[in-house]
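Hi there,

I know you've been waiting on this one. I reran it after we fixed the sequence typo, so this is the corrected version. Both the input and the resulting structure follow.
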Amino acid sequence: MPPPVKKTPAKTPSPVKRKPVAKKKAPAGTSWGWKIALVGLLLILLSPFYYGYILRFGSATWRWILDIGQDTKYRTYKSFNVRIPGGYTVHGIDVSSYQGKINWQKVKAMEEDGVQIKFAFIKATEGVLLSDPYFQRNWREAARAGITCGAYHFFLPQKSGLWQARFFLQTVKVEKGDLPMVVDVEKLYRTTPEKMRAQLTLFINQVESKTGVKPIIYTNISFYQDYLQGYFDEYPLWIAHYYQPQLNIGAKTNWQFWQHSDKARINGINQKVDMSIFRGDTVAFEKLLVK
């Protein structure tokens, strides 16, 4: 018998080794890119300018909501606690000893929606004997705070207009950059209109001759219409007419200041305050000042 043929066992094929799929590498700088973006975002969120913008935006939106239904030319300013006529850029107050000791730095710093106190009329004298006990302090401290000042005299028509003017001029030393002097005439005090006008004429002529500047006449709208209209038209006027969106007076009337409220709240002052506006812009206001 032929020897048996040895059969070589068939080799089991080895599994094909596959090369691992190479991971795609991120482009250089991508990992740093998002980190830089994240840092930038954090810087924005933590920035006081960002929050200042957000607060301003939120404040403006809330102000718009509060003003819905209000006359945009005569709306309420919460911090001043009064409605203020729109369209005017120069705002001010007038004070006397009634307001007590005033922190003028706080008055100057107060601001809401662009409204700031830029001028102050300060009571100096009354009649021929009375000087306001707070005048000198107010006159000094208001100017030091950067507020433009003007002094006023409370006029008594039963007294000599000439002597009242002399007393006023003796008390107040007007300087360059001050507002013109003011005479406050509101009542007849049992005198006739003719006598009142005669004494007032003596007063304003004396002040004008000594200072070279026409004084401002302050009065309320009814007193002006009843007793002054047509007699002192060449003099600048400061008219009191409260709680109205506009001053109801002839367009040709030479009014320069309008006292629109007697109950404003001003930072640094513990009592209610009269608040006024100037008729023109800042350029016209500067032209009015004593040269």
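Quick highlight: The chain is about 35% helix and 20% strand.

Best,
R. S.
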